[in-house]
């Protein structure tokens, strides 16, 4: 047999094993129809506007680029409280910390220890939107799932509250 034929045969075997492995994992996950953990949190964000430094939980650290009629290029950092109810004065059970940025030229845009890592586009003009839970630490070690976001209330650009319905499908306790 020629070396090129053997190389192609090995490559084919590798891909067959890879596909079989993917199907085995897929069928295992599809059997688990219900989440292993669910909870609802409310994120409260108060954007800094020069007069509210004591209460602000987020601020723009870059200005919009001006190449569109939206906030394209703006980078915002936040340290927002998460509560179990809709009241901003309720005791926080956790904090959402990180950043978000406007990367589109259009308008589209508790009792646990550890972190949840969420990734995805928050298309705020949609009534509900899903973003991925891609991992975590502590009680949420390597968890996977989905977070359904819904804008609960807004007060112009000064304040908004998001309702997060979180469903975890891979839990390692």
UniProtKB/TrEMBL annotation:
Belongs to the plant dirigent protein family. It holds the Pfam family Dirigent. Homodimer. Gene3D superfamilies: Allene oxide cyclase-like (2.40.480.10). It comes from the Eukaryota. The keyword Cell membrane does not apply. Dirigent proteins impart stereoselectivity on the phenoxy radical-coupling reaction, yielding optically active lignans from two molecules of coniferyl alcohol in the biosynthesis of lignans, flavonolignans, and alkaloids and thus plays a central role in plant secondary metabolism. One of its GO terms (biological process) is phenylpropanoid biosynthetic process. PANTHER family: DIRIGENT PROTEIN, DIRIGENT PROTEIN 5. This is Dirigent protein. InterPro entries: Allene_oxi_cyc_Dirigent, Dirigent.
